[in-house]
Structures are given as C-alpha cells and as structure tokens.
Specification:
Layout (H helix, E strand, L loop, with lengths): L1 H24 L1 H22 L4 H25 L1 H25 L13 H22 L1 H6 L1 H24 L1
C-alpha cells in the first residue's frame, strides 16, 4: 500500500504542475492537455468495461461531453474559475482519502468499500478550506461580499465530485 501511495504522489508531483501550466496558458496548450486526458480516460474506460458495448459507447460519449464542457468552462468563464473548480475536486478527493484513512469509522456504501462517513466529512472540509483560500487569495472583497454563495458553490461542487467518484466506483 505504501508503494501505491508513493507512486500516486510521485505521479501527481509531476503531472499537476504541468497540467496547471497548460491550463493557465490556455488556447492550444489547454486543448492539448484535454486531448491527452481524454485519450487516457477513454483507454481506461474501454479497459474497465469488458463486454457491454452499449455501456462502452455511452461512457465514451459522457467523457466527450465532460471534456468539451471543461473546454467551454475554461474558455468562457476563465482560468481562475476553472482552477477554482479543479482545486475543489482535488481537495475533495484528498480530504476524503486523508480523513477516511486517519479517522476510519463506518463504511459509506458497498459500492466503494473503502469510503467512510469520515471521508465524506473530510471531503467537504478540505474542499471548503481550499476553495475559500483560493477565492480569498484572488479577491478578498469579493469573498467577503459573496461568502455564503461561495460556500454553497464549493459544497455543491464537492458533493457532485463525490457522487461522480461513487459512480465510477460502481463500474
């Protein structure tokens, strides 16, 4: 298990700075990043679903829509909002993992046996922390004026991220 965690950490330490650089640069760089991730995600999906061709097809269509939506978000709402959403999703995952491993506790569902209620709480906590720090870093006055709305947006994105994680675990 420790070697798996070390491998994930090393991979993240390499990929995350490159990905953020390409996100910030935008334009063709961002399209290149999305294309690479789409190819990798499609390859993983097709290897995950062995027999059902309809599910394979639907999955690839969902991936295509997801990556196109990411492109539209970055291009239309800007890099700061895109990075905001990305940070919430990343810290939702990290918070769930860390809190779940440290606090353990009752399991959330049979779909994903490693997920715990402590992980759910940790996901919300870590995403709130990261999201509010990022918005506060960008514009303190905006954060103060819209803090309740920002908290609601963060919790909504974190919730959707966790539901998506459970759906992928189901498959």
């Amino acid at each position: 298990m420790k070697s798996e965690l070390a491998k994930r950490f090393l991979t993240s330490a390499i990929i995350i700075p490159i990905a953020f650089f390409l996100i910030i640069k935008g334009s063709i760089y961002f399209i290149f990043l999305l294309t690479l991730f789409f190819i990798a995600a499609t390859f993983e999906w097709l290897n995950l679903i062995k027999k059902d061709n309809l599910i394979k097809f639907i999955g690839v269509i969902v991936l295509l829509i997801s990556f196109f939506s990411a492109f539209l978000l970055r291009e239309n709402l800007g890099k700061n909002f895109f990075i905001f959403i990305l940070l919430i999703c990343i810290f939702t995952d990290i918070g769930g993992y860390v809190f779940g491993k440290i606090l353990k506790g009752p399991k959330l569902t049979k779909i994903s046996p490693n997920k715990t209620y402590a992980g759910v709480i940790g996901s919300f906590f870590a995403s709130l922390l990261a999201g509010t720090l990022y918005i506060n870093f960008l514009n303190n006055e905006f954060f103060i004026k819209y803090s309740l709305q920002i908290i609601f947006i963060i919790l909504t994105i974190s919730f959707i991220s966790q539901i998506g994680d459970l759906i992928i675990s189901y498959f």
